[in-house]
Design goal:
By secondary structure, the protein is mostly beta strands. It folds into three domains: 8-32 and 305-537, no CATH class; 35-303, Neuraminidase (6 Propeller); 547-711, no CATH class. A seven-stranded mixed beta sheet has the order 48-59-58-50-51-52-53, with no helix packed on it. Strands 47, 49, 54, 55, 56 and 57 form a six-stranded antiparallel beta sheet that branches. A hairpin with an 8-residue loop joins strand 23 and strand 24. It is globular, with a radius of gyration of 27 Å.
Length: 712
């Protein structure tokens, strides 16, 4: 499977005959998890602790570990395909990993003392955990396969519960080294350990928000139960989110940053249950209900975004990429290759973005963009593999998060695959798979969602697919789809982690996508033109949801109040096109806040909301735009200029409005808005919303990020 900042899944290539020529298509699926999957947790309901998972609404609770021993501490991998956990099935607690359905449970550690609390690195290549193997609990890290176990902390006190920052550079944990439990952060290599909290309370179970701006944890003031608290990543501005008796602990953010799952014993039972709430603490809802312990230690599964379509145009040697599976103009056009090349696409460096390439008579040419100061540097990797007459495929054959070349040799009906894509290399064959028959065309994908790309063939003589889930000659899936002349393409069209098939009908420029290995077509739309060749992948990642500081509080009418918006984009903060900050007055009949519409000051809930403030930072032009709801017009100015933008409801003081990015190639940016409200809004009746949009048009939708009161 594909690891990246969040993760990859599969790559595919299919060959087809068009007129008298052979063309090849490649599809790659990778993805970043912008949406929320299942929640894993441990529960005593079977008589011993087991790992369960359930849907985010609490339904479909399934026992995954099914073992007579005790299992704790589930942790989803960043691609959502694996769960690491701790088990004492081999006497003492060790770290194990399993597939999401509970299969393939594999032990990773083996020491005489306790190992626990595994936490995956964002790229999926490492797991941090705590261990008592050296006498007291310390923080360790290992490769995802259990190799390279390395101690990171070395303190006479106990260090517990590590958790990675979203960019993979930091690890937070709690420690008793200063007398009571406090939150610390260190570099991912164990250096520069810094204390973030400092009080008489016990602060434990820290976890970063997906954008890295916040840390959620639980705090116990002496004599009181644990409560869930959120603070800035530097330890500032702690805000308590829960207040109930019975204790609330073990909080984790949802992958999209809008929710927090946690455990609570608030309902009077002897054990805890799993709850979920909005990131600001509102909407606290119980998900599990069981006489024994219903649930503890929740972990939230990242869900991969779907693959989207693209085409290669042989007449111009251009790739045209579409960021949604809908009709419309291409979101990106990339010139690469030459006449006679066969198109491919994959994640060559494990960064989570699908890049294009071509196969040219035994040579793979892989296009690799890299951000540099002031722009993007484009390089080409050359990998010598295969021979003239071979048909290319690409995939993650070993699950290391990178796509590498392969070829299908029609003369022997054999796949030859390599796990190397190093520049200027001539790698050896790592995997040989005899599969298919004369006249078959190769495809490749992750058919069962296990993170490993395997192969298959398309048989034009009867429009049938034959797919295998292993590198063997066994056919695991077969079905018919399409008509003569259709061109096959592979991808994960619905984000469920499994690759399925699609078709491109060149004569009508129509795409047909199937989500279930059946003859049914689930999605169809037009894209491209006659003689284009289809490819697929995740061409771009949406920006992360933003947060505001302060997210709650009050100011007086006429008082200058500063709000700081922090957001990020995995492709770099310069990939963010606009940041919209909106403050609306909520009426009693106001609905849910995830409003994705923009218009001339009116959104789809405009009848229920009054816009008090709407400002937008335009990164490409370094301008701030200010909306006047009365005139439904925008005015603009430069951050830092001696200008005041004003409406009947609010003012924006540009002299105190600033933008600070995290370097030319950094991912995060902070915008400080200097605002004056002109009308009162009591009892937090103002609601704060953020909309982050990138250069390709992908956006977060308007997320509610807080509330505000204005006092006379």
């Amino acid at each position: 499977m594909r690891t990246r900042q969040i993760q990859i899944t599969r790559v595919t290539v299919a060959l087809f005959a068009l007129a008298t020529s052979l063309f090849l298509l490649a599809s790659r699926a990778e993805a970043t998890p912008p949406s929320n999957g299942r929640i894993a947790f441990d529960s005593l309901r079977t008589g011993n602790f087991e790992i369960f998972s359930m849907k985010p609404d609490g339904t479909d609770q399934v026992n995954l570990s099914n073992n007579s021993a005790d299992e704790f501490d589930p942790s989803w991998s960043p691609d959502g395909k694996k769960i690491a956990f701790a088990s004492n099935r081999d006497v003492n607690f060790e770290i194990y990993v399993m597939n999401t359905d509970g299969s393939n449970q594999t032990r990773l550690t083996s020491v005489p003392n306790t190992d626990g609390r595994p936490s995956w690195s964002p790229d999926g290549t490492k797991i941090a955990f705590h261990s008592a193997r050296d006498g007291n609990f310390e923080i360790y890290v290992m490769n995802a396969d259990g190799s390279g176990q390395t101690r990171l902390t070395n303190n006479s006190a106990n260090d517990f519960r590590p958790s990675w920052s979203p960019d993979g550079t930091k690890i937070i944990f709690d420690s008793l080294r200063d007398g009571n439990a406090e939150i610390y952060v260190m570099n991912a290599n164990g250096t520069n350990s810094t204390r973030l909290t400092n009080n008489a309370a016990a602060d434990e179970n820290p976890a970063f928000s997906p954008d890295g701006a916040k840390i959620v944890f639980d705090r116990q003031v002496p004599g009181s139960p644990f409560q869930v608290v959120v603070m800035n990543a530097n330890g500032a501005n702690p805000v308590q989110l829960t207040t109930t008796s019975g204790g609330n602990s073990g909080p984790v953010f949802s992958p999209d940053g809008t929710k927090i799952a946690f455990q609570s014993a608030r309902d009077g039972g002897a054990f805890s249950e799993i709850y979920v709430m909005n990131a600001d603490g509102t909407g606290q809802t119980r998900l599990t209900t069981n006489p024994a312990q219903g649930g503890a230690e929740p972990s939230w599964q990242p869900i991969l975004p779907p693959d989207t379509i693209g085409v290669y145009r042989p007449s111009t040697s251009q790739f045209l990429e579409r960021n949604t599976n809908t009709a419309g103009a291409p979101n990106a056009t990339i010139a690469f290759g030459q006449a006679g090349d066969l198109p491919i696409a994959g994640d060559w460096n494990g960064d989570g973005i699908s890049d294009v390439g071509v196969f040219r008579n035994g040579q793979f040419l892989l296009r690799q963009p890299a951000p540099i100061a002031g722009g993007v540097f484009i390089s080409t990797r050359t990998v010598n593999f295969g021979q003239a007459g071979d048909l290319p495929v690409v995939g993650d054959w070993n699950g290391d998060g990178r796509d590498t070349p392969g070829v299908y040799r029609p003369s022997t009906s054999t796949f030859l695959l390599t796990n190397t894509n190093t520049n200027n290399s001539s790698p050896t064959v790592d995997i040989t798979v005899p599969f298919g028959d004369t006249g078959d065309l190769p495809v490749a994908g992750d058919w069962n969602g296990d993170g490993i790309t395997t192969v298959g063939v398309y048989r034009p003589s009867n429009n049938f697919y034959f797919l295998t889930n292993s590198f063997a000659t066994v056919v695991d899936i077969s079905f018919g789809l399409g008509a003569p002349g259709d061109l096959p393409v592979v991808g994960d069209w619905n984000g469920d982690g499994k690759d399925t098939l699609g078709l491109y009908r060149s004569a009508t420029s129509t795409v047909f996508l199937d989500n279930s290995f059946t003859t049914n077509v689930d999605v169809s739309f037009t894209f491209g033109q006659f003689l284009d060749q289809p490819v697929a992948g995740v061409w771009n990642k949406p920006p992360n949801s933003g947060v505001n500081d302060p997210s709650a509080g009050s100011s007086q009418v006429g008082q200058v109040q500063q709000f700081t918006t922090t957001c990020s984009d995995i492709d770099g903060w310069h990939n963010i096109a606009t940041i919209d900050f909106r403050v609306s007055k909520k009426n009693d009949n106001d609905g849910d806040e995830r409003d994705q519409e923009r218009g001339k000051g009116k959104d789809r809930d405009n009848d229920e909301r009054t816009v008090a403030l709407w400002v937008q930072f335009d990164e490409n032009n370094n301008l701030v735009h200010f909306y006047d709801p009365d005139t439904q017009t925008w005015s603009s100015g430069t951050p830092g200029s001696n200008t005041i933008l004003s409406s009947r409801f609010a003012e924006l003081h540009l002299a105190q409005t600033s933008v600070h990015g995290s370097g030319p190639n950094g991912r995060s940016v902070k915008v400080t808005w200097s605002v004056v409200f002109k009308h009162p809004a009591a009892r937090k009746n103002y609601k704060q919303y953020l909309l982050i949009t990138d250069d390709s048009g992908l956006n977060t939708g308007f997320d509610r990020v807080g509330s505000w009161s204005v006092i006379r």
